[in-house]
Amino acid sequence: MKTFIKLHEDILTKVKFFSKQLKLKLRKSTIRPLAIKGEETIALSVFKQNAGIGTKKKIFEIF
């Protein structure tokens, strides 16, 4: 991602920390390679809910 948003970066560091502490195994379930990592997916969804963004399309436009 090219856009830098402080709130998203803070959430991403917290998600990575908790993922490491809880030893979460975020793996892909398909043969196709994923566009973004599992931790980034979780961080984006938390950012979306925290910022009050309505749709996934708006997230795509932001980033």
UniProtKB/TrEMBL annotation:
Protein name: Uncharacterized protein
Species of the source: Candidatus Roizmanbacteria bacterium GW2011_GWA2_32_13
